């Protein structure tokens, strides 16, 4: 990991000073979180009804990943927004990022739905049918902590513990809450990243328009997200549609056996009790 950090543009850490970064585990709502944050911060610059880059560019190209900034094929943050995303665990962040005082927005999601989303995403990337990629195996791997950025609970717990020391620096958003009450939670997000909505804006429907433009229905139905490709890495290109599957809460019920449910509930209990974060 240290080798990777050496390749990051030198100005990255100073650029992060006092700015916002978006953190999370894959499949917990990264794409949505990026779209909303980008729309909040650019609402004066772009007419969201027609001219937003979110209508012509995948959210991951509007807000870059910290871990990808060194890649030659990936240009630097296109709009020079005070915003970056990352899936890196807290303990793997460069010390200078931790010291940078950037604000941290952490999105998390019901772990059972994350497992199902993760399963389909990686199954499709390697082009395997459901028959050839048994869900049970994916489930067991996930429970053993075998996932791309490490065990889900370690990821969330590390950020949560850090937030106990510096609560002013962290905002935890729950995917399901964002769905249930988009207005309040998008307002919280906007306030936290220091770009709050004014009363006039709310009256004029700016908040509602942003929520609508960034909704699953809106983004997943854009032609560019249905058929285009995303350059995730120097050597890794994937279909944009893979970022938009169902976005349904409780899809796990179609996959989990009673034994799986019992196992994961026990794990969640063991790992997360006392945090107040319900997975
Ligand atoms: P499902 O696989 O359950 O459908 P990530 O963006 O972190 O990769 O997470 C992907 C999950 O978020 C997928 O969940 C995807 O469908 C869902 N998603 C993508 N865009 C969304 C949006 N605008 N609103 C709500 N959910 C969204």
UniProtKB/TrEMBL annotation:
Task: Give the highest taxon in the source lineage.
Answer: Eukaryota
> In the Enzyme Commission scheme, what number(s) does this protein have?
2.8.2.-
Task: Please tell me whether the keyword Repressor is annotated for this protein.
Answer: no
Q: Which residues form the Sulfotransferase domain?
A: 25-276
* Keywords, alphabetical: Transferase
Query: For this protein, what is any one GO molecular function term?
Result: sulfotransferase activity
Q: Which family does it belong to?
A: Belongs to the sulfotransferase 1 family.
Q: Which PANTHER family does the annotation name?
A: SULFOTRANSFERASE SULT (PTHR11783)
Could you identify this protein by its name? Sulfotransferase
Q: What is the native source organism of this protein? A: Lactuca virosa
Q: What is the lineage of its organism?
A: Eukaryota, Viridiplantae, Streptophyta, Embryophyta, Tracheophyta
């Amino acid at each position: 990991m240290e080798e990777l950090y050496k390749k990051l543009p030198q100005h990255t850490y100073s650029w992060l000073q006092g700015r916002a970064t978006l953190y999370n585990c894959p499949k917990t709502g990264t794409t949505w979180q990026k779209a909303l944050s980008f729309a909040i911060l650019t609402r004066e610059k772009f007419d969201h009804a027609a001219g937003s880059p979110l209508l012509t560019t995948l959210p991951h190209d509007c807000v870059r990943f910290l871990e990808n900034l060194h890649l030659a094929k990936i240009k630097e943050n296109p709009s020079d927004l005070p915003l970056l995303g990352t899936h890196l665990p807290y303990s793997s962040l460069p010390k200078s990022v931790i010291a940078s005082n950037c604000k941290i927005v952490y999105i998390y999601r019901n772990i059972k739905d994350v497992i199902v989303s993760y399963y389909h995403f990686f199954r499709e990337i390697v082009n395997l049918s459901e028959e050839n990629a048994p869900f049970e195996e994916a489930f067991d791997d996930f429970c053993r902590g075998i996932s791309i950025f490490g065990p889900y609970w370690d990821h969330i717990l590390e950020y949560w513990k850090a937030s106990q020391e510096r609560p002013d620096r962290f905002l935890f958003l729950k995917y399901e809450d964002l769905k249930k009450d988009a207005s309040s939670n998008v307002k919280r997000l906007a306030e936290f990243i220091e770009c709050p909505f004014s009363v006039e804006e709310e009256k004029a429907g700016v908040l509602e328009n942003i929520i609508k433009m960034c909704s699953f229905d809106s983004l997943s139905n854009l032609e560019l997200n249905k058929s285009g490709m995303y350059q995730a890495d120097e050597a890794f290109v994937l279909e944009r549609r893979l970022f938009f599957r169902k976005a349904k809460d409780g899809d796990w019920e179609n996959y989990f056996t009673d034994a799986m449910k019992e196992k994961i509930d026990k794990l969640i209990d063991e790992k997360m009790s006392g945090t107040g974060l319900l997975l």
